[in-house]
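This is your field. Please look over both lines of this record.
***
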Amino acid sequence: MVRIAGINWYGFETKDQVVHGLWARDYHTILNAIKNTGYNAIRLPYSNQMVESPIIPSNISYSMAAAQLIPI
């Protein structure tokens, strides 16, 4: 038997068109936190606008130092 424990990771459907939290942490850290909390499925809502009129997200931190700022 497989138990599905899902979580919603919003953001793609917003004006920033990027999942929430990447301004503070890298995606590896966030995914590890989700896994360590016991979730094994992620729902990623999105919008057609992401494909029809893509933007370059400006709300992402590319600095590893940002990963140290906010604990999850």
Remarks:
- Helices lie at 27-36, 49-52.
